[in-house]
């Protein structure tokens, strides 16, 4: 059993997100020994993983051995439902008609919303999903560096167990949006940042504690005549300093190290991390969709224990969903509850501290019509 897979007896409710102490090595269930797999995986079956964040939406399909059959990387553009619908439709086109989806899982900041839209069998947090994917690609990995468009994560593993993690969701200077913004100011496509950074000799000294100060430093370096490649390497190093100062304080980062997320495409960032950590940093082939790979692997471990997947099919783009929110007045917490509907039917609610609304509507996928 992979990280955080917790069997739920009988009717499945909201999946529990488990992070610290997730064991990536276990493959058998010790909580319910009486349960037995319903059917083994078959040829022609695939496992779907969907990772929806504020910047990108990633969808992958894996075969029964965990190999990637198809992958899609899209910009969310503030419309997660449309992005998911498009991504799943494109995956279906890549797979063709001979592949059946045996199970589907969702992760990311919009994982519960996505679980309703897709008809997910498993909903899992990003930490667990990224840790599972990294361990699958590089067994024995001890440090996972992940930088996305709007947040960043640090995950530490020892002997296949997630022992610690940290997330940065409040400082733009430690995320990919920082590089995107500065690339626009420099007039250099962000795709060329890596090649330019490798041409630099020393790298300009640029503040890394705040994106505002970093931008001021960058402008000053331009005014005094620094070459563009030196400024680019300086920006990469400032992002790495921000990342390590915010996430790695008091933590021991050991090799093997895996660097994943969309920013890992920038080889200048790889150089900056290797300079700072003084160890080799490994970038997996599917670094930009690792969250989706992880939740697909977790779903693969779960699927033998239920008869049929809740996945609605690749035609989910034909359905129209609406989301809204309201304040629960059941207690003094005044939680904001998110509600998703298809027509007049309420499919799911979530967001409360007590779980009252989640229980009323069962799991995020349980009431979604299947196509």
Walk me through what this model shows.
- This protein is α/β, with parallel strands linked by helices.
- Helix 5 crosses helix 7 and helix 6 packs antiparallel against helix 7.
- It has two domains: 170 residues, ATPase, nucleotide binding domain (Nucleotidyltransferase, domain 5), CATH 3.30.420.40; 145 residues, ATPase, nucleotide binding domain (Nucleotidyltransferase, domain 5).
- It is globular and about 65 Å long.
- A five-stranded mixed sheet has the order 3-2-1-4-5, sandwiched between helices.
- The chain has ten helices and 13 strands.
- The longest helix has 20 residues.
- The N terminus and C terminus are likely disordered.
- 46% of the residues are buried.
Structural features:
13 strands, disordered C terminus, 10 helices, 2 domains, Nucleotidyltransferase, domain 5, alpha/beta, 21% strand, disordered N terminus, 371 residues
Helix amount: 25-40%
Write down the domain tally: 2
Low-pLDDT stretches: 3-39, 363-371
Secondary-structure-derived class: alpha/beta
Provide the succession of SSEs: EEEHEHEHEEEHHHHEHEHEEEH
Spatial order of the strands forming the largest sheet: 3-2-1-4-5
